[in-house]
Prior knowledge:
- By secondary structure, this protein is mostly beta strands.
- It contains 4 helices and 65 strands.
Amino acid sequence: MKNILLVLVLLLMEFPGSDQNLLSGIQLPALDWPGKRSDWIDVKTDVMPAAKGDGITDDTRAIQEALNQLMAQGSLWKPKTIYFPPGTYRITQTLILKDIMDGCWVVGHGRYTIIKWDGKSGGTMLLLDGAPRSLFEGILFDGNEKAGIGIDHYSSKLFVTEGDQKYLAFKNLDVGIRFGNNGVASAEQSVNNCLFTNCKTGVYIQRFNNYDILIMGSGFYRCGTGIIIGKGANGYVRTCHFEQSAITDINAFGPEHPCSFMRCTSLNSNMFLKWEGGVATAFIQDCHVSGWKAKVAMLLTGPPILIFDCVFTDPPDNESPISASGRLVLSNNTSNTSGLYRDDASVTEIPKGKRNGVVISASQSFFKEVVPVPQKVYDVKKFGATGDGQADDRAAIQTAIDSARLYGKGAIAYLPHGDYKVNGTLYVSGANYTIGGVFPGGSYPGSRIMWGGDAAGIIINVRNPKNIKIEQLTVQDDRDSIDILQTATDHNSSITYNMVTVYGMYMKSSKKGLQLLNLPHGAIVTMDHINGNIRVINSSRAKILINYHWEGMITVEGSSETIRDGFIGIQANLATNVDYGILVRNNQNLVVTNFYMESADRYFSVEGNDNHTGGHVSIAGVKVQTALNPLITIDNYKGRVAALCLQYYQAPEQREITCTGSQPVSLIWIGNNSYSPSVNFHITKSAKLILIENVWKGSSNKIPEGGLQQASEVLDDFREMGENDLYLNYNLKN
C-alpha cells in the first residue's frame, strides 16, 4: 500500500495540473505533444535564463525572454511559436506580448502546463498589446486568488482580429479573458473548449467595436458572471455550460449589434441571461435552464427577441421564468411553472416544427476532456524543403505528406514557419493524418504554401479524404489558380479544415479559394476558423458545416443534382469589402447563423431557374451595413428565403430588398430591427411576403394564411443546424 501511495504522490508531483479543476470535476485535455517541433522556442531549453517549471522558481524573466524573441525585429522567418513543456511556471510580474503583426502560437500541454500568479494583488498575467491572428492553446492560468486578469487583449496600436483561445483554463481570477481594454478594436476572436472556475467574470467583452467574439464548447463554474457583453460590443455564445454563477451566466448590457445564445445549459445559477438589447436583436435557441435562484431566469428588454426550444425546470417558485418587454417571437418553449413569460410584450407564437431541440438537459456539458495530438511528425524541412519562398519545395512537401499518409495513426506532415513555393500540385488522399503548420498569419503568414506553376493550376488537390485534417496553413495565390480543390467519389469521406487561409480576404472575386466539387451523399466536411473564399459546387448531398468563417465570399451552386438531402450550414460569418457576402445559385439550400457584414456592396443574393425543385435559404444575421441597394436580391428562386434577427445598420436611409422572376417563393422576415433605415420590399406577384414581429419604419407584421406554418419550417432549418453541430463537432447524435 505504501508503494502505491508513493507512486500516486510522484505522479502528482510530475503532473502538477492533475488537480487543476476540482470545483467542476472536469479537466483540460492533456495535450500530449511528443516534444517540441523544429521551430518551437522551448521555455525550458531555448532561453537564458531557462524556465524551471517547478512551481517554486520565479520563471517570469525566462518566459518574458521567450516572448521577447517573438517581438524582436530582424529575420522575417524567425520562430513564432513558444512551447511550454509540462510544469507549473510561477510568475510574479505581468508577461507582455506586443506588436505581433503577423501572429504567433503559444502552446502548452493542457492540464499539465500551469502558469501561476504570485505577484501583486490585482495584477495581469498575460497582456497582449497587439497580437492579431494568434493562437493560444493548452495552458492553465491560475490566478492564485490574487491576480486580476488572466489574458488581457489590450491593443494600443494594432487592430486585433482572428485570434483563437483554445484548450485554456482560468481559475481564481477577477477576469479570465478580457477583450478590448484599450481604444483599438479586438474582433473576430474565438474562445473554444476553455474552462473558467471561481472567476468573478469568465469572459468580458468590454466596449464598442469589439465584435464577433465567439464563445463555444466552454464551461463556467462558480463564477460571479460567466460572460459579460458590454455596451457597444457583441458576441455569440453556443454549446457552453454554466454552473452556480452567483450573479448571472450571461449579462449583455447595451450591445451595439445582435447577439445569439444557442444550445447552452445552466444549472443552479442565480440567473441565466440578463439582456438589455438597446438597438440589438437576440437569437436564443435550445437553451436548458434549471434551478435558477433569481425571480426570473431571463430578464429581457429591447428590440425583437426570438426564443425557441428552450426548457426551464426546477424553478424557485411558480412564477414565469421570462420577464420581457418589447417584441417576442416564441416557439416550442417549455416551463414547469404557471406560464412562460410575464410583463408587457408583443408576442407571436410559431407552431412547433417537425424537428426538436438537441440539448438533453441543463446538466449537459459539451467540453472535451480528451483531445488527440499528433505523435509522429514528418517535418518537410527534413525532406529538403527550404521555406524561403524561392526554391521549389513541392517534392519535399509531397514526400512528407505521403509519409504521414503511409504511417496514418494521426501523424502530421509539418511545415515550420516559412514560405513554401510549389511549382506543381500537391496531392492529398488516404486516411488518418494531418497536414499542418504554425498558424495562418497576416501579410507574412506563419506557414504559407505559394504557387509557382502555371497561372491556372491547383495548389492542393484533396481526393477522397478519410479523417484528414488540414490546419494552421495559408494556401494562397493571387493569380487564377485554385488554392484547394476537394473532390470525392467515396461516400464516407471526411476532412476538417482548421485555421486555414485561402484567397479572398477583402477581394471582390469569388472564383478562387477553397472549392468543394461534386461531394456525394455521406461526405463530411467541417471547417473551423476558415478565411477567404469558399465555393461549394454540386455538393448538396454532403454534410458541410462551417463553424466560423472570417472574410471572403461564400458561394453555393450546382445544377446537376436532382436529390439534395445533405446539409450546408455556416455558424458564424463575417464579410467586408465584397460584392456579396453569400451567393446562392441554382436553387441550392443554405442555413446561416451570425452573419455580420459591413463595408461591403450587398448582403446576399439568391438565384434559381425554372428547371430546379424548390429549396430554402435561412439566414439569422447580425449587422447589415452595405454600400449599395438592393442589399438583398432574390432572382427566380423557388421555395423560401428567410431572414431572422438582422439589424439594418445606419445609412442609407432607404434599404431595398428585391424579388424578381416567376417562380413561387416565400420571403419570411422574423424579428428584424432597423437601426434607422426604412426597409422596402419590391416583389413579384409570385412571391409571398411574411413579416413577423419586426421593428422598422413601416409594417412590422404581415402574416398571410399559412405564414406561421412556413415560419416553423424556417426554425426547423436551425434545428437541423443544431443536430449537425452536436454530431459533427461533439460526436453527439440527437
